[in-house]
Amino acid sequence: MVDSASETEMIAASADRCFAVVVDVERYPEWTPDVKEAVVRERDSQNRPLLVEYRASALGRSTHYTLKYDYAQAPKVISWHLAQGDIMRTIDGSYSFEQVGEKTNVTYALSVELVVPLPGFIKRRAEGRILHTLKELKVRCES
Questions:
Q1: What is the pLDDT of residues 18-34, one digit of tens each?
Q2: Which of 28, 65, 92, 139 sits CB 3.0–4.6 Å from 85 for a disulfide?
Q3: Residue 26 forms beta bridges with which residues?
Q4: For 101-129, how does the pLDDT look when each residue is reduced to its tens digit (9 = 90+)?
């Protein structure tokens, strides 16, 4: 079963700044504690990451997955889907950026389907941790 969640946060930074932080995937381990490593395997003609291999902590263990990024709606939206993963069947996500004066409304949406189903309370805890990434993005963009 696919579980989905989304959250929106007003960030005191430009949409360009927010987009730049999100696209700089190799620096994720500096600001989001769950990402231990991000290695870009392929880039597009604008040098943006297209295929990225991640090592992250998830549910008390280490997981590996590769995401394929889509910039068709950039710089308003960056989206991704799972290319390969060890404990996930599906990961579909996006960041949307809406400039509001000198700030940016950022929406983070994520849908995940795990290989092994989890009890509800563990899913809710994991969902909270995943959505905390948006708070970490806010801190990074505003620094």
A1: 999 999 999 999 999 88
A2: 65
A3: none
A4: 999 999 999 888 777 665 554 545 555 55
